[in-house]
UniProtKB/TrEMBL annotation:
Keyword annotations of the record: Signal
Protein name: Spore-associated protein A
Signal peptide residue numbers: 1-30
Amino acid sequence: MKNVTRSVSVLLTALVATLGMGVLSPAANAAVNTCGSYVFGGDASGGISNGTLKAGFCIGSGSIRRINVLYEKTGGSTTNVRLGYQETDSSGVGISPPVYAAAQNVNSGQTAERAFSVTEPIGCYHGVMLNTLTGYQYVTRVWGSC
């Protein structure tokens, strides 16, 4: 019984660690418009030489309630990224610091996904991806009304 309990404990620890790192899925399953009970407000994307960065915005009760950020990696070697979002002005200049999720590795052919449960005012935002190996930040086009 002690070995079974230990095995279950190790399995649950591994599962929690995996969930904390983010979700990787085949690119075909990626959806920025997953909003649950909220209304899909629109999306923004940005092309990168080895994939596409996308962000989807879900609206509820006059606020942004969920932001989905996805990086569909189509080429290149494994990289480590942090997905997030940032409030911007109409030209895409950040007016608040980016909000990032924990870092995760992503391979060619995979999609890294993060969903942020938020209560943010309606405004202008873009999705962001920080490459932790190079320190370079990629962004989507601006979404919203400034």
